[in-house]
Amino acid sequence: MSETPFIYKPIVFEQLPEPVFYLTRKMPCDTIYPPHSHRWGEFVYSFSGVLELQAEGSLFRVPPNYGLWLPPETEHKGLNRHASIHCSLYIDPAVAAAKALPKVTCALTINAMVRAMLNHCCLQSPQSPYATEEARLLEVIVDQLAVAPCAGSYLPTSDDPALSKALAYLEDHPGDNCSVRQLAERFGTTERTLARKALRDLGMPLSEWRQRLKVVRAMPMLQAGMTVENVALDLGYSTASAFIAMFRRLLDITPNEYRKNAE
Predict the structure, then answer these.
(1) Distances (CA, A) of 105 to 36, 55, 92, 109, 164
(2) Pick from 99, 75, 86: nearest CA to 19
(3) Which CATH superfamily is 161-262 part of?
(4) What digits encode the pLDDT tens for the residues 222-237?
(5) Predicted confidence (pLDDT) per residue in 163-185, tens digit
(6) Span 6-152: which CATH code?
């Protein structure tokens, strides 16, 4: 992080201007969002890069095919490691309850239609008071969020001593292709035990977690202008095609498509 991070000052409303209020922000790298909460729910979506927020004792790292839902009164804080554009949908508690939005903080899987509608809002920047068509579009987005699959945290963590050390090692060495057995031996456990703990604490095999980590690490590299081939090599892939296939499977777009969208 730079020596002079940008401290974001949360916007304070006496009441929401609209039952569903849309706001876009363009933030510099090393932006810090201090702890805060509000009476309404908030859905946060990043158009580029990975969204990092802490809430309810967990760290949520959310790439652009997911968004983060924060129920009303949820205290949260965040960090922008790289420059990004993201938006918030502030949702009145009565609307959140009527739509049966989740009662816990979680990443929501966003389909292509919702992404397109959010992109449209970003380009149009609707201003309150909304036209009937604008209000209806935002209501449709909320309807889609209400039925979106809840993914918890995209890249969860663990308090288990052995597993947390293994995850920290992978975070520091994302290009290391050591096997699960080698990783387990490095931290004094067995392959079977480490795999079992990963399923228990992460909700997924360690191999899936490693691929998600590589996607998260690839995003700022691509935005910085690195070639797909160099990103693939840095992340431990012997060929660019293998990296592209993994990236597309997890994000539903290719690395070059992601770069174009981010630009």
Answers:
(1) 14, 7, 16, 13, 22
(2) 99
(3) Homeodomain-like (1.10.10.60)
(4) 988 999 999 999 999 9
(5) 999 999 999 999 999 999 999 99
(6) 2.60.120.280
